[in-house]
Amino acid sequence: MNLETFFIHDTSEFIELKNNVNNNFKVKNSLPNKVFQEKYNYFLFEEFDWTMTDDFWKVIQKISVVTNDDYVITGVIDPDPEEFFYNEYNYYNWAKLPLNLTSEQYLSVLDLGPQKNPYDSIQYISETVFWLSSSNKWAIWGDRSYGVCVLGIQDINIIEKLLPILKTWRSIDESVLNWIKINFDNYVIPNDFIDTLTENYLNNNKK
Protein backbone atom coordinates (compact mmCIF):
# COMPACT_ATOMS: atom_id res chain seq x y z
CA MET A 1 0.00 0.00 0.00
CA ASN A 2 1.35 3.40 -1.01
CA LEU A 3 0.73 5.53 2.06
CA GLU A 4 1.73 8.72 0.22
CA THR A 5 -1.58 8.60 -1.67
CA PHE A 6 -3.45 9.43 1.53
CA PHE A 7 -1.91 12.90 1.66
CA ILE A 8 -3.59 15.80 -0.13
CA HIS A 9 -1.74 16.92 -3.26
CA ASP A 10 -4.48 18.76 -5.15
CA THR A 11 -5.02 22.37 -4.12
CA SER A 12 -8.74 22.41 -4.96
CA GLU A 13 -9.29 19.35 -2.77
CA PHE A 14 -7.30 20.98 0.02
CA ILE A 15 -9.41 24.16 -0.18
CA GLU A 16 -12.60 22.10 0.07
CA LEU A 17 -11.27 20.26 3.11
CA LYS A 18 -9.97 23.48 4.63
CA ASN A 19 -13.43 25.05 4.39
CA ASN A 20 -14.88 22.09 6.23
CA VAL A 21 -12.15 22.25 8.87
CA ASN A 22 -12.90 25.95 9.37
CA ASN A 23 -16.57 25.09 9.82
CA ASN A 24 -15.62 22.84 12.72
CA PHE A 25 -12.60 24.54 14.29
CA LYS A 26 -11.58 28.07 15.15
CA VAL A 27 -8.17 27.50 13.63
CA LYS A 28 -6.81 30.92 14.58
CA ASN A 29 -7.44 30.21 18.26
CA SER A 30 -5.44 28.15 20.72
CA LEU A 31 -6.04 26.69 24.15
CA PRO A 32 -7.32 27.70 26.63
CA ASN A 33 -9.65 29.60 24.28
CA LYS A 34 -12.39 27.95 22.27
CA VAL A 35 -10.90 25.99 19.38
CA PHE A 36 -14.19 24.37 18.31
CA GLN A 37 -17.06 26.09 16.58
CA GLU A 38 -20.13 26.70 18.73
CA LYS A 39 -22.00 23.61 17.48
CA TYR A 40 -19.69 21.44 19.60
CA ASN A 41 -20.99 21.17 23.12
CA TYR A 42 -19.38 18.21 24.89
CA PHE A 43 -15.64 17.87 25.52
CA LEU A 44 -13.22 15.25 26.80
CA PHE A 45 -9.44 15.36 27.20
CA GLU A 46 -6.56 12.93 26.67
CA GLU A 47 -2.78 13.25 26.56
CA PHE A 48 -1.37 14.51 23.29
CA ASP A 49 1.35 11.87 22.98
CA TRP A 50 -1.31 9.16 23.03
CA THR A 51 -2.63 10.41 19.68
CA MET A 52 0.59 9.16 18.13
CA THR A 53 0.03 5.55 19.26
CA ASP A 54 -1.71 2.52 17.81
CA ASP A 55 -4.22 2.42 20.67
CA PHE A 56 -5.47 5.88 19.68
CA TRP A 57 -6.27 4.68 16.16
CA LYS A 58 -8.17 1.69 17.54
CA VAL A 59 -10.35 4.07 19.55
CA ILE A 60 -10.92 6.25 16.47
CA GLN A 61 -12.10 3.20 14.56
CA LYS A 62 -14.57 2.29 17.31
CA ILE A 63 -15.93 5.84 17.51
CA SER A 64 -16.36 5.88 13.76
CA VAL A 65 -18.52 2.77 13.83
CA VAL A 66 -20.94 4.54 16.18
CA THR A 67 -21.02 7.71 14.04
CA ASN A 68 -21.03 5.90 10.67
CA ASP A 69 -17.93 7.61 9.33
CA ASP A 70 -16.35 6.71 6.01
CA TYR A 71 -12.95 8.23 6.76
CA VAL A 72 -11.10 10.58 9.09
CA ILE A 73 -9.06 13.61 8.06
CA THR A 74 -5.95 14.35 10.08
CA GLY A 75 -3.64 17.26 9.47
CA VAL A 76 -1.29 19.85 10.88
CA ILE A 77 -2.52 23.37 11.63
CA ASP A 78 0.72 24.65 13.14
CA PRO A 79 3.14 24.93 11.35
CA ASP A 80 0.99 26.36 8.59
CA PRO A 81 0.14 23.66 6.01
CA GLU A 82 0.19 26.12 3.13
CA GLU A 83 2.79 28.80 3.84
CA PHE A 84 5.26 26.32 5.29
CA PHE A 85 4.56 22.80 4.15
CA TYR A 86 3.05 23.15 0.67
CA ASN A 87 5.48 25.87 -0.34
CA GLU A 88 8.36 23.66 0.70
CA TYR A 89 7.21 20.23 -0.45
CA ASN A 90 4.42 20.77 -3.01
CA TYR A 91 1.81 18.78 -1.10
CA TYR A 92 -0.15 19.23 2.14
CA ASN A 93 0.48 17.43 5.40
CA TRP A 94 -3.20 16.60 5.66
CA ALA A 95 -4.24 12.99 5.09
CA LYS A 96 -7.59 11.34 4.38
CA LEU A 97 -7.44 8.08 6.31
CA PRO A 98 -9.72 5.15 5.45
CA LEU A 99 -10.96 3.46 8.59
CA ASN A 100 -9.74 0.04 7.54
CA LEU A 101 -6.13 1.15 8.02
CA THR A 102 -4.29 -1.02 10.48
CA SER A 103 -2.77 0.60 13.55
CA GLU A 104 0.66 0.01 12.06
CA GLN A 105 -0.33 1.80 8.85
CA TYR A 106 -1.75 4.71 10.85
CA LEU A 107 1.56 5.12 12.66
CA SER A 108 3.40 4.90 9.36
CA VAL A 109 1.30 7.75 7.91
CA LEU A 110 2.15 9.93 10.91
CA ASP A 111 5.81 9.07 10.51
CA LEU A 112 5.94 9.60 6.74
CA GLY A 113 7.73 12.82 5.89
CA PRO A 114 8.88 14.35 2.59
CA GLN A 115 11.70 12.57 0.84
CA LYS A 116 14.07 15.50 1.13
CA ASN A 117 13.36 15.91 4.84
CA PRO A 118 11.79 12.79 6.41
CA TYR A 119 11.63 14.41 9.83
CA ASP A 120 9.08 16.99 8.66
CA SER A 121 6.35 14.45 9.33
CA ILE A 122 3.18 14.82 11.38
CA GLN A 123 4.86 12.80 14.09
CA TYR A 124 7.77 15.20 14.49
CA ILE A 125 6.92 18.75 13.40
CA SER A 126 3.31 19.16 14.47
CA GLU A 127 2.50 21.60 17.25
CA THR A 128 -1.23 21.66 16.56
CA VAL A 129 -3.00 18.75 14.87
CA PHE A 130 -6.64 17.92 14.17
CA TRP A 131 -8.67 14.80 13.48
CA LEU A 132 -12.07 15.34 11.86
CA SER A 133 -14.70 12.71 11.15
CA SER A 134 -16.38 12.55 7.74
CA SER A 135 -19.76 12.83 9.51
CA ASN A 136 -18.64 16.02 11.33
CA LYS A 137 -20.19 14.53 14.47
CA TRP A 138 -16.89 14.64 16.35
CA ALA A 139 -13.49 16.23 16.05
CA ILE A 140 -10.22 16.26 17.97
CA TRP A 141 -7.83 19.15 18.51
CA GLY A 142 -4.31 18.22 19.60
CA ASP A 143 -1.96 20.71 21.25
CA ARG A 144 1.57 19.40 21.73
CA SER A 145 2.76 22.49 23.63
CA TYR A 146 0.22 21.86 26.41
CA GLY A 147 0.40 18.08 26.17
CA VAL A 148 -3.31 17.48 25.62
CA CYS A 149 -5.90 16.81 22.97
CA VAL A 150 -9.58 17.67 23.17
CA LEU A 151 -12.41 15.62 21.72
CA GLY A 152 -15.44 17.70 20.79
CA ILE A 153 -18.82 16.06 20.17
CA GLN A 154 -21.80 17.75 18.54
CA ASP A 155 -24.66 15.36 19.18
CA ILE A 156 -25.04 14.80 22.92
CA ASN A 157 -27.46 11.97 22.17
CA ILE A 158 -24.55 9.72 21.21
CA ILE A 159 -22.51 10.40 24.36
CA GLU A 160 -23.79 7.32 26.17
CA LYS A 161 -22.78 5.12 23.22
CA LEU A 162 -19.32 6.66 23.08
CA LEU A 163 -18.39 6.77 26.77
CA PRO A 164 -17.65 3.01 27.02
CA ILE A 165 -15.17 3.49 24.16
CA LEU A 166 -13.66 6.63 25.70
CA LYS A 167 -12.71 5.10 29.03
CA THR A 168 -9.43 6.99 29.39
CA TRP A 169 -10.77 10.36 28.25
CA ARG A 170 -11.59 12.85 30.99
CA SER A 171 -13.64 15.95 31.55
CA ILE A 172 -11.75 18.91 33.00
CA ASP A 173 -10.33 17.72 36.31
CA GLU A 174 -7.10 17.62 38.30
CA SER A 175 -5.64 14.90 36.08
CA VAL A 176 -6.07 17.04 32.97
CA LEU A 177 -4.47 20.00 34.72
CA ASN A 178 -1.57 17.74 35.78
CA TRP A 179 -0.97 16.83 32.12
CA ILE A 180 -0.89 20.51 31.25
CA LYS A 181 1.12 21.89 34.16
CA ILE A 182 4.35 20.07 33.26
CA ASN A 183 4.56 22.43 30.29
CA PHE A 184 4.67 25.52 32.52
CA ASP A 185 7.58 26.96 34.45
CA ASN A 186 7.76 25.42 37.92
CA TYR A 187 4.67 23.37 37.02
CA VAL A 188 2.42 26.31 37.87
CA ILE A 189 -0.51 27.06 35.57
CA PRO A 190 -1.66 30.70 35.71
CA ASN A 191 -5.08 31.05 37.28
CA ASP A 192 -6.46 32.89 34.27
CA PHE A 193 -5.48 29.95 32.05
CA ILE A 194 -7.30 27.51 34.33
CA ASP A 195 -10.36 29.77 34.57
CA THR A 196 -10.59 30.23 30.78
CA LEU A 197 -10.04 26.54 30.04
CA THR A 198 -12.67 25.53 32.58
CA GLU A 199 -15.17 28.08 31.32
CA ASN A 200 -14.78 26.93 27.74
CA TYR A 201 -14.64 23.16 28.22
CA LEU A 202 -16.58 22.28 31.38
CA ASN A 203 -19.46 19.99 30.41
CA ASN A 204 -21.78 21.11 33.24
CA ASN A 205 -23.10 17.56 33.55
CA LYS A 206 -24.49 17.56 30.02
CA LYS A 207 -25.87 14.21 28.88
Can you give a write-up of this model?
It comes from Aeribacillus alveayuensis. This is SMI1/KNR4 family protein. By secondary structure, the chain is of the alpha+beta class. It folds into 2 domains: 3-27 and 39-169, no CATH class; 172-200, no CATH class. It contains 8 helices and 7 strands. It has helices at residues 11-24, 54-66, 81-89, 103-111, 122-125, 159-162, 174-181, 191-201, and strands spanning 7-8, 42-47, 71-78, 92-98, 128-133, 138-143, 148-153. A 7-stranded antiparallel β-sheet has the order 1-4-3-5-6-7-2. Helix 2 (54-66) crosses helix 4. The protein is globular, with a radius of gyration of 17 Å. 30% of the residues are buried. The model has no long low-confidence stretch (mean pLDDT 96).
Strand content: 15-25%
Shape: globular
Low-confidence stretches: none
**Spatial strand sequence of the major β-sheet:** 1-4-3-5-6-7-2
Number of E-type strands: 7
How many distinct folded domains?
2
Helical proportion, percent range = 25-40%
- Assign the structural class, choosing from mainly alpha, mainly beta, alpha/beta, alpha+beta, or little secondary structure: alpha+beta
Largest sheet: 7 strands, antiparallel
Residue-averaged pLDDT, rounded?
A: 96
SSE string, helices as H and strands as E: EHEHEHEHHEEEHHH
What is the distance, rounded to the nearest whole angstrom, between the alpha carbons of the first and last residues?
41 Å
Q: So how many helices?
A: 8
Rg over C-alpha atoms, rounded to the nearest angstrom: 17 Å
Protein name: SMI1/KNR4 family protein
